[in-house]
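Homework help board

Subject: predicted structure for assignment chain

Our instructor gave us this sequence and asked us to write out the predicted structure in token form, then describe one feature. I got the tokens but I'm not sure how to describe them. Can anyone check?
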Amino acid sequence: MARLYLVRHGETTSNVMKRLDTAMPGASLTDFGVRQAARFALDRSGDVEQQAVLISSQARRAQQTAEVIGGLWGVEPEVTAGLHEVQVGELEDRDDEEAYKTFGSVVERWHHGETAVAMPGGESLDEVIARYVPVVDGIAERHLVGPDAKDVFVVSHGAAIRLIAAHLASIDPHFAVKNYLPNTGVVELSYAPDEPEINWSAHRWGDRVAPFTSSEG
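My token output:
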């Protein structure tokens, strides 16, 4: 069965400086981030070379990560709107403790059902889902089903990946809150359009293998 891999981008200068960086185009990869992308590609090249679909968000760091991966796989990456990071509004470019507490508090409320709550001057989870999920569903219908199904690698962003994967596959919110994705970390999903309720299943989350429980983290 073809799989969808939601891949966090490589390390950026903002990651190093611990700045909240969500507005586009955003920061570039560090040299180490480029090496992370290359290592990701090389670790998987035997299985996916020239056989996978590679897509990135419009953010600079995601495009750069996808370009490195695609260059080593011989795959031309597509750039697709709607897959960018959660927009943090007034918290943008901040690195102080208060900003991170505010960000974390809002995300935790989202994971516990308060999806209409927004970042100060930024997006709510409802807004993130409204732009992101239709793109993922479209990708699934084009590439994950039928006789020509292929694995798809979507290079996106840490918070958005966790939120969307938890939403799609009904992941325990406590698990989703506690289990961050490192740079080039992956959530692996499968798509079953004929299932009556949940079309998506999660198989891997970073270095963890399903089933996922709230005690993990």
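Reply (TA_rk): Your tokens look well-formed. For the description, you could write something like this. The chain has a mean pLDDT of 92. That's the kind of observation they're looking for.
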